[in-house]
Amino acid sequence: MSDLQTYLDKAIEAARAAETIIRRYYLGEFDVEFKADASPVTVADVECEQAIKAVLSQAFPDHGFYGEELGAESIDADHVWLIDPIDGTKSFVRGYPFFSTQIALLKKGAPRDELIVGVSNAPLFNGGEMACAAKGLGATLNGEPIATSDTHTIAKTSLSMGNIASLGASPAWPKIGELVGAVHRIRGYGDFYHYHLLASGRIDAILESDLNILDIAALTVILREAGGDITELGGGDIGLETRSVFATNGRLRGAIAPYIAAWDEVRDGARG
Q1: How far apart are CA 232 and CA 175, in angstroms?
Q2: 139-186, pLDDT tens digit by residue?
Q3: What CATH superfamily is the domain 3-145?
Q4: pTM of the model
């Protein structure tokens, strides 16, 4: 068994460990605290991250961690796990199943660091959706291989946008309005879901701002392995400082890029 398959298998095991905790707390009573940015955190978030780390640290004691709730540990290691135990805590708290567990593996190296494993598990959405991938091994959704669509024209494109506060306030917004009028359909699925849809060929492109790397690290691996492409809105590589996303099915980047050319990663607030 390859190292990549081993990493992926353990990431899946860790996601299932978190799922057990999520199912125990969901729709139950628990305290909710708020971080400095007013985002909520619950005991379920913390326990899920602890369970994920327990599985992965036992299997890979030399690996580091960067988690949403427990912070960084051995961040200078050659391999670092990026963890968002419940991405969508606001949904979790309010009792609707639009949340997921995100686990990715970052390999350090030259000429650049590389995301090589991703697991996105939404255990209570639509009967359960787990998307998985490792570099060179392809992508799956609930165990079945997935691939992006073959759509290649704006007129046939289904576009999803999410977390668009910075995007809506940017100089790129008027041209994005033109794009909205030119595509076949416009939706705002958001969070993990529009990436699952894009990777499995059910929509064709995503524009998103006001996020962080823990939200999309795993989804980046999944989308690339399904045949798609993903960068920051300004075209920069996905990395630890990423705050925005421009993703397509691998065929539409050239057609859509002119509509977001006025976006500036720093000026428009995506580095805040």
Answers
A1: 17
A2: 999 999 999 999 999 999 999 999 989 999 999 999 999 999 999 999
A3: Fructose-1,6-Bisphosphatase, subunit A, domain 1 (3.30.540.10)
A4: 0.94
